[in-house]
Amino acid sequence: MTHDAGHHDAGPEARTGDSTAVDALTAVAGLRVGHATLREGTALTGTTVVLGPPGGMTAAVDVRGGGPGTKETDALDPRNVVRRIDAIVLTGGSAYGLDAASGVMAWLEEQHRGVRVGPDPAHVVPVVPAACVFDLGRGGDFRARPDAATGRAAVTAAAASPPGTPVEMGSVGAGTGAVVGGIKGGVGTAAQVLESGFTVAALVVANAAGSAIDPQSGALYGELLTGPVDRPSKEVHAQAQRRLAEAAAANATPPLNTTLALVATDARLTRSQAQKLAGSSHDGIARAVRPVHLLNDGDTVFAVSTGARELDEDNPLALNEILAAGADMVTRAIVRAVRAGESVAGAGGVFPAYGELYGGGV
User: Fold this and answer.
1) Looking at 4-114, which runs of residues are DSSP E strands?
2) Percentage of residues in the chain with pLDDT exceeding 90?
3) Nearest in space to 349 (alpha carbons), one of 135, 187, 170
4) Are 334 and 196 in contact (CB under 8 A)?
5) Residue 262, class by beta-carbon neighbours within 10 Å (0-12 exposed, 13-18 middle, 19+ buried)?
6) Of 123, 156, 298, 314, which is most buried with the most CB atoms under 10 A?
7) Model pLDDT, residue 250
8) How far apart are CA 196 and CA 301, in angstroms?
9) CA 68, CA 74: separation in Å to the nearest integer?
10) This prediction's pTM
11) What confidence tier does 251 reach under pLDDT thresholds 50, 70, 90?
12) Backbone dihedral angles phi then psi of residue 351, each to the nearest 5 degrees
């Protein structure tokens, strides 16, 4: 099994006045993203790593799905001792895939990055929060899943990328085997520079039991909220619904899923503020996928702050625009993930892509 790791062009720039940042998580300066993709033979899974800047990042998490698979998320509780972390892992492979975090932890130790626990700079314990999606068997092999080597490949790819590198979307990394309501899901990302100058961005792994498609029109829920959209014709929609029903009848893998998101900002947030951002950003999932937070989902949102720009401490409502933008970016990222998905038809099932069913690009 091979580890296809790397980065590729994500497309348009961020829609941000005079900003020239990429429309991706890496628009937040200091963040890097690496994918490791397993799709050889009957494998269809992978891992995505978000690597923080030197010195780490403030982080928090909010879990709302009924079937989460996570690691080290308790360390992010504001009541606990760990103040900053260096990396977050999003991975396929269900709970088995959490082993990818071990490879990231080993790599960070080699770089002397982690919580200092002794007099020697090498005496560190890297805290690597991780969350997984269910994609077991979607390529045909139930035992094909990410491991420590996959995590190392992803973090190595992240570290090797120049600042501001566009992030590949679609069927890559943790989104390789992702499915949303019967259509192919994947990795999506989006960014915005607010009028205040703060950057807010999101990266998602769209893999939901619910649907991203309005059953009446065939349009994406997340696009219906943002203004007029070109709705598919009745004929195209009817044909797409027939194909989805045929695929669902032929597929044997269980409807176990989970949507993961990571929302980032360069605003300096406390851990409590970051936790509020993680919670508010769940609204972005609810706008783009229906229903959400089910017992067969493990919906989890991380929030990170690089702290490069000061937030006005004298204004208790200064965080509001960041909270609103976090949810917006999650919705946009899910739309882009679904539009970037690539159809799969193999031993593990048939999962057509939205673009193949309805047309249109990212």
Assistant:
1) 4-6, 32-38, 45-51, 58-63, 70-71, 87-91
2) 81
3) 135
4) no
5) buried
6) 298
7) 82
8) 24
9) 13
10) 0.93
11) confident
12) -130, 90
